[in-house]
Every structure is written in C-alpha cells, then in structure tokens.
Amino acid sequence: MERKLIITVGRQIGSGGRVIARMLAEEFGCQFYDREILNLAAKESGFSEKFFEQNDEQKGFLKTHFHIHLPLLADNDFYKNDFSQESLYQFQSDAIREVAGTTPRCVFVGRTADYVLRDNPDTVNVFITAPMTIRIANVRERRGCTEEEARKVIESGESERARYYNYYTAKTWGAAESYDLCIDAGILGPEGTKELIGEFIRKKIQQ
C-alpha cells in the first residue's frame, strides 16, 4: 500500500514556488490544491467563492479583518449575513483537513496549511525563497510590468501574506523553524529545486 504523503509549500512571491509545488505533485502522484481550497471551503460553508478570494492570504487582510459583510448563497438567491474573517479561515482550515484526511497524497500551496496540519505525521513542510532580482524578473515576465511595479507587487503582497500567516499561526512566516526545509530556488532553478526537495521528501518519509 502506498504511503500517505502531504506536502505543504510556502513561498515568496516570484520565487517559482507554485510551479515547483505543481512539479512535486506530479512527481509524487499528489492532488494539487491552491485556489481549489477556496472552492471547497465555499461549498462546505454555503458562501460564494468570491468572498473567500477577497479575504484570501494576501488580499486586503487588514482592511477586512474582524468583521465582513457577505451574502449567503442558497437557492441561487443572496441573503445578507454578517460573518467574521475568523469564520472564513475556519471553513478554509476545515477544507484543508478534510482533503488531507481523505486524499492519499496531496500538495497544498500556502494558506497556512503547514500550521493547520501541524499534528499530522504524514506532512512535509517546505518554504521556497529566491533572490529579489530573480523574483522581480519573474513577476515582470508574468505581469508584463516595470521593475518598480514588480517590486511593489512583491513587497505589498508579502506584507499581507506575512501578517495573515503570523496572525493565525502565532509563528513567523518564512522563519526556518516553521518548516522542515527552506530552500533558495534561485540556486538550482525550478527543476533542480524540485529534485532536491523530492530527495528530501523521500528520505523523510522513509524514517
């Protein structure tokens, strides 16, 4: 019987972390979950997916924190309902736990999955970084923007992401002690980084 495996991937913006996470999912035969978790959480809660997207890990966390006003979806009609962001986070966390408990092998990108699944012995937690120059170049290529605009995207997005992670986990986003492995993807590139992480995972799950 194939051993259960859960990989969580935290990443700096522009580091290539999401691409590497998908490569790991393919190598280890895992289901891949990034934005898909928002859809699952929406289905479980009965709320529209767009409200989970609007309150995601790097989209105005501080602006909407503590209390938001969102419509409940039922029979194709909107019903007004006040709801806290903590409740949205709980729905998302429950969706992550449900997937981890029912899917033999899966990869989660971001959304504090490493913390949500902290007591799961089948989890390998990875954080992917890269030098700012490489991250700016990647964001410029993806968005077709200037170097200055790319830098602003990275700095603003990571500020929100860190605050979101730190608030819900009481840990520090990107700090080495929060993960099993932290790696600079700028050294080996996406493929080489995937191979190194893959080797680490194989050794860890053999323990």
Describe the structure.
This protein is α/β, with parallel strands linked by helices and 207 residues long. It has one domain (5-46, 83-205): 3-Layer(aba) Sandwich (Rossmann fold), CATH 3.40.50.300. It has 9 helices and 7 strands. The strands form 2 sheets. Strands 2-5-1-6-7 form a 5-stranded parallel sheet, sandwiched between helices. It has a two-stranded antiparallel ribbon with strand order 3-4. The protein starts with a strand and ends with a helix.
- What fraction of the residues are assigned to beta strands by DSSP? 15-25%
* Shape, per Cα inertia axes: globular
Q: Supply the CATH superfamily name.
A: P-loop containing nucleotide triphosphate hydrolases
How many distinct beta strands?
Answer: 7
CATH uppermost class: Alpha Beta
Radius of gyration: 17 Å
- For the termini, the CA-CA separation is 17 Å
Class from helix and strand fractions: alpha/beta
* Poorly predicted parts: 58-82
Q: Which sequence of strands runs across the widest sheet?
A: 2-5-1-6-7
The largest sheet, given as strand count, sense and whether it forms a barrel, is:
5 strands, parallel
Provide the CATH architecture.
3-Layer(aba) Sandwich
Helix count, DSSP H or I runs of 4 or more residues: 9
Helix-strand pattern, N to C?
EHEHHHEEHEHEHHEH
* Mean pLDDT over the residues: 83
Quaternary structure of the protein: single chain
The figure for the number of domains is 1
- Portion of residues within helices: 40-55%
By CATH, the topology is Rossmann fold
How would you summarize this macromolecular structure in one to three sentences?
The chain starts with a strand and ends with a helix. It has helices at 17-28, 36-45, 49-54, 61-64, 85-102, 113-116, 132-143, 147-169, 185-205; strands at 5-11, 31-33, 68-74, 77-83, 105-109, 123-129, 181-184.
